[in-house]
Amino acid sequence: PVTDGSRELHSLCAQLEFLLQFDLKEKRSFFGQRKDYWDFLCQGLARSRQEHEGIHFVTSLDKLKTPVGRGRAFLRYCLVHRQLAESLQLCLLDPESLCEWYYARSPFLSPKRRAEILGSLYELDCVTFHLAL
């Protein structure tokens, strides 16, 4: 199993975060706080009308104060529960939402690249992750 001490885990999480932040449009909340991929994921999963335990879990953690911290916790939660590919796929279903959140260079706006990314993420479902949440 992959644990918190794994060098590959840190590389994987950094690459996932890079993908989710790459060409992300700058958006601000009502109070001026910069939105990040966490906000994109929350909106995408809310649009799919599915209650996501990962969102509930992360929002219940009082120690997490920033969207980036919440996003990282969500990625870890999804890896442990083998839900990363499915969760991201639900967020990527709506082309209008993708254009609202990402500029044209984002790999998520290319159907071919999006399929390649999701295919790779579905392969991670075979890997066991034992991470501290």
TrEMBL record:
It is found in: Cytoplasmic vesicle, Autophagosome; Lysosome. PROSITE patterns: RUN. Residues 3-133 form the RUN domain. Pfam families: RUN. Keywords: Autophagy, Coiled coil, Cytoplasmic vesicle, Lysosome, Metal-binding, Zinc, Zinc-finger. Its main location: cytoplasm. It comes from the Eukaryota. InterPro entries: Run_dom, Run_dom_sf. GO terms for biological process: autophagy; cellular response to interleukin-4; plus-end-directed vesicle transport along microtubule; positive regulation of autophagosome maturation; positive regulation of transport; vacuole organization. GO terms for cellular component: autophagosome; late endosome; lysosome. GO terms for molecular function: zinc ion binding. ARL8 effector that promotes the coupling of endolysosomes to dynein-dynactin for retrograde transport along microtubules. Acts by binding both GTP-bound ARL8 and dynein-dynactin. In nonneuronal cells, promotes concentration of endolysosomes in the juxtanuclear area. In hippocampal neurons, drives retrograde transport of endolysosomes from the axon to the soma. Positive regulator of macroautophagy in dendritic cells. Increases autophagic flux, probably by stimulating both autophagosome formation and facilitating tethering with lysosomes. This is RUN and FYVE domain-containing protein 4.
